[in-house]
Structure formats: C-alpha cells, structure tokens
Amino acid sequence: FITGRCKSLGVTYLEYKKITLEPLEPLLDNKFKEVILWFDEDMFCQINMLTILAYLDQNNFSGEVTINLVDPGYKIVDTLKTKVKGFREVYIDVLINKSKPSNRVFEYLERGIDLYLEYSLEENEITDFIEENLSEAKDSLLKTLMKRFPDYGLGDTQYLRMIKRLKAIK
After folding, report:
1. Residue 124 and residue 24: Cα distance in Å, rounded?
2. How far apart, in Å, are the Cα atoms of 116 and each of 72, 100, 151, 152, 170?
3. What angle do CA 46, 152, 51 make, to 5 degrees?
4. Where would I find the H helices in the chain?
5. Cβ distance 69 to 41 under 8 Å?
6. Tens digits of residue pLDDT in 23-35
7. SS3 of residue 38 by DSSP
8. pLDDT tens-digit profile of 115-163?
9. Cα(52)–Cα(24) distance, rounded to whole angstroms?
10. Burial of 6: CB neighbours in 10 Å, binned 0-12, 13-18, 19+
11. Can you tell me the distance from the alpha carbon of 5 to that of 139, in angstroms, rounded to the nearest whole number?
C-alpha cells in the first residue's frame, strides 16, 4: 500500500513516512477517547477520510470520531459525529471491489464514493473531456481541468498522468 502511495504521489518512502505516517503514530496506541478529523467535501478528501475511518475500525477504535467538513477556504460547513464500526467493510466495497457500499454512509461520503466510482472507470467524464480537448496546450488544459472538476479534488499530477496516458493512446 505504502509503495503504491509513494509512487502515485511521486515521493520517496522517507518523505511519505515523515509527512503521512509519523503524524498518525499517536493513533496507533489507541489510547484516545475521541478523534477529530478535518476534511474537504471533495472526492479525494472523502476517500482519504474513508481510509482513516476504516483503519480505525480495523484497529478496534471504540471512541467517537468528530468529522469537520470544510470548504476550500477551511471554513467549517458541517460537523458530524460517528463511530467507526462498519467502515472497514465500506472501504473493502468501495476501494477494493469498486462497488457501492452495502453499509449506509453519510451524504458527503456517499457523494465522494459516487465520484470515486466514476473516476475509477477507464472512461469517465474527466477522460471524455480530456479526449475532446487533447489539441489544447497542456498547461491550458490542466488549468481548465482544475476549474471544471473541483469536486474530484485532483491535483496537477493526476491530471497530467491522465493527459499523458490519453495522448499515448491517440
């Protein structure tokens, strides 16, 4: 998993460990009664949040989780409280089996899952748009993608990889 994440993010293992894993180490002792998470509403953030909830579930975290959903300016738009039981199954349904979860989830996560399942398709609304605009200069197309598909929460690296792949096919 970590090797795949490092490759997809274009970082070394040591960089990933310092940025991502070390801050999570206090969660490993499972001595907290509550965990407070802060995430944007976009697909990328919602899937990352699902991953953390599934991790906590897998490790039998029994405390309460408060989720602060923020807008792009980091203003809280909603606060949810949940337990983590069942999120491991949701993770397996969505990220492993690429299907809608059998367990119910809150609306923000449901929207993120729907976008993720669309994004996971070989052909999706983003790839369709890229294919229709492949003649556009790469930098211009990249800016357009960032503005047109903000709900996905993708960055330039993901879009550039998609553009490169689609140009190679054409």
Report:
1. 33
2. 19, 10, 10, 8, 25
3. 25
4. 2-9, 13-16, 22-28, 43-58, 87-91, 107-119, 125-132, 138-148, 156-169
5. yes
6. 877 766 667 788 9
7. strand
8. 999 999 999 999 999 999 999 999 999 999 999 999 999 999 899 989 9
9. 10
10. middle
11. 25
| 101-128: burial string, b at 16+ Cβ within 10 Å, e else | beeebeebbebbbebbeebeeeebebbe
Amino acid in position 43: M
- Six-digit token string for 24: 């999570």
16: which DSSP letter?
H
Can you list the pairs that 81-86 forms with residues at least 24 positions away whose Cβ atoms lie under 8 Å? 82/53, 82/106, 84/53, 84/54, 84/56, 84/57, 85/57, 86/57
* Rounded CA separation 25/115 (Å): 30
Locus of tokens 């800016």 = 143
Q: Do residues 95 and 44 lie in contact, with contact meaning Cβ atoms separated by under 8 Å?
A: no
Q: Record the pTM.
A: 0.84
Amino acid at 51: T
